[in-house]
Design goal:
The structure holds 2 protein chains of 2 kinds.
Chain A lengths: L1 H20 L2 H5 L18 H6 L16 H4 L3 H4 L3 E2 L2 E4 L5 E17 L2 E8 L7 E5 L3 E8 L8 E2 L21 E7 L4 E6 L5 H6 L3 E7 L9 H7 L4 H4 L2 E10 L9 E4 L5 H4 L2 E4 L4 E7 L6 E6 L4 E5 L8 E4 L1 E5 L3 E6 L7 E6 L3 H5 L3 E7 L4
Parallel strand pairs in A: 1-5, 3-6, 5-10, 11-14, 13-21
Antiparallel strand pairs in A: 2-3, 3-4, 6-8, 7-9, 9-10, 11-12, 14-19, 15-18, 15-20, 16-17, 16-19, 20-21
Chain B lengths: L2 H42 L14 E11 L2 E10 L5 E6 L3 E2 L2 E3 L9 E6 L9 E7 L4 E6 L10 H14 L1 H8 L2 H5 L2 H33 L6 H20 L7 H29 L6 H19 L9 H12 L1 H10 L4 H32 L7 H21 L2
Antiparallel strand pairs in B: 1-2, 2-6, 3-4, 3-7, 5-6, 7-8
Helix pairs in contact in B: 2-10, 3-8, 3-9, 5-6, 5-8, 5-11, 5-12, 6-11, 7-8, 7-9, 7-10, 7-11, 8-12
The chains are: A alpha+beta, B alpha+beta.
Amino acid sequence: MRRWLRHQFSRRGILSAGIVAGGGSLAAGLSSGRHAAAQGTHAEHGAGSVRLSTHAAHGNMVTVGEVDGSRNGFDPTAMLTDWDTGTVSQLPDGRVLRTYEVVGQDKEIEIAPGLMFPAWTYNGRVPGPSMRATEGDRLRIVFRNEGSHPHSMHFHGIHSARMDGVPGAGLVEPGGEFAYEFDALPFGCHLYHCHALPLKRHIHKGMYGAFIVDPDPARHPEQAAVARSRLLGTPENKEWQEFLMVMNGFDTDFDGENEVYAVNTVGHHFAKHPIRVERGRPVRIYLINVVEFDPVNSFHLHGNFLDYYDHGTTLTPSSKTVDTIMQCQGQRGILEFTYKNHEVGQYMFHAHQSEFAELGWMGMFDVVEVAS
Amino acid sequence: MNATTGQQLQAAQPATARALSATTLLWFALPLAAFLLATAWLFSSDWLKAFDVGAPPVEKLTFERTVLDGDGIHLKVRGGGSEPMTIAQVQVDEAFWTFRQDPPGEIARMGTTWLHIPYPWVVGEKHEIKVLSKTGAAFEKEIEVAVATPQAQAGNLVPQALLGAFVGIVPIVIGLLFYPALRGIGRRGVDFVLSLTIGLLAFLFVDTLEEAFEMAGNAAPAFQGRAMVVLGAAAAFLVLFAVGRRHGTPAGLALATYMALGIGLHNLGEGLAIGAAFAAGAAGLGTFLVLGFTLHNITEGIGIAAPLVGSRPSLPTFVGLALLAGAPAIAGIWLGSLSYAPHWSALALAVGAGAILQVVIEVGAYLIRSAGRQGAAVLNPSMVAGLVVGVGLMYGTAMLVKV
């Protein structure tokens, strides 16, 4: 029993100190080999002792092993930034036409080390390709269904009933093909997902992805600077560190409850592979919630506050200076924050549903100094 | 038949057996060869693929032992199902937790492995463990009330032995102390007590079998727990019955000894249950509960004393009988608290049930015989009363210990 008490004390020490110090010990395992600095304000919690411990901020509350990214064919870290801008061409009227080719496929994916899930995918990945366009572009998405069930692509955007991707309007039988055509409107952070029935299963099996529409600065003269910072490829946009995070979950035994929660599919991936953030550059996160079975999901940032643009359809924040935002199923938005005035170190982020965090939806930002 | 032909026959037999063996062996080779051929064909051809519908393999995982200590939670699991299986992750109370598997790797069909989980469990609270296989199947184990698992240390063995003696040996001794009184109650009285014994043993038989089935339900499916219990009980019964009847039907001291053996095996099972309840934290063993067990078992002692009324056994005999019937409770508690695998517990209980059945049959036969000698009805009123009181006593005192 006495031995047990020691156990509990040390664990509490690890937890509190881990939050404060940003899991200094984790740094040892990182290739960057940078120094972790404990924040002086909470030194009494013994942050120093944590650096000696073999535990990271998550202690033992983490999956065991590593996911084979090459077998999956995708990497959650790469997914943070791999925007798919389509094949660009010019329409006779001078507008931009973006063409995307998407294939529906059955594929077994590894969602936690050693844990396989029989997924339905767009282009063999979960989430599907992160489509990014500019406000007003003409979009043409050619969807070919090579899966075993009927599928569709239902975009959250402005389009005609014929292009809605519901049964009777763009539902594609196995072996079939359909081209969805519409204008990229409105600007914001959106998503697409399969709308075949039963909806719950088609979504939770992995058929969803990001659909980001950047504002056209010419259409927003009064806030052109803000719009330019959002428009992919502009010098202003390059100042930002943009990340796509799709909050998802997987019910591996199909009992209507998720066994794994994650950002970009692999549980605890960003706990083991912190996201590198340069201290001086602001951060923008395109956050999308596609989790099934649970009504809401959330994002909580440690040691910092953020501005939130619900649905990303405004150029002024819908919530200012918050550290936790909540999204229902299918809700999404843009988060903006900076570590400019922070010390370098590891800053945690996770769903503030503790259960989700403990089942995989937890990660770290590794804030580093970059010599200019 | 005269002696000469008998000798000739005996002499001829080995030669015939030898002559047979060559051809017989050859004929035994025929079905064996046919089986090998069928096996080879099954492996070489792939017509079985017609049945492959792409379903994932059937997986089973049985939790056989749970140990909680200062290092966390330790589970011994046994694989089952159609193919070897792989454990991917472990969740405790809806949180992924690190774990060490020993031995690591695939779990073969019927193979076992330990999962060591450094989880800070909380005394007196409930914990749920979910083991996820590679295919995403979830196997759940609930720890109803977390308490440190008793370790096999000398410090624990002594109080456990004391407890075993109190619920096992003490009541048998008290029951045997009725012996002088039984000698003065006459024929009718002895009939009554023997019938009472049958009643209480019948109750024990049902009770033991029920516990055996319950234990079997927790065992890995490949052990076929229910069949194992029935066969184990039947085998124990047949062996004891055959041994007991080597020199005619048992009576007197022999009958008392078999009774003590049967009750002893039952007490082993009871000890296992108490020990397991301890280990699982399911039982806060109160004074009242211990007293209940003691009271419940006193009737067993009276039963052992009853067949001895006609003879004058020595004191060492009584001591031996008391130990035979009561001491297994101590061993049971020791084994049970180390949470031995459910299939072993089920088998022990089944053997106990078989032993009890043998005693019921033999005591019954003894009663019927003595009734026949007196020219009385097979079931006189005092016997019926004895049966009813016996079952009633056991049922009533069992109420004290059922929680």
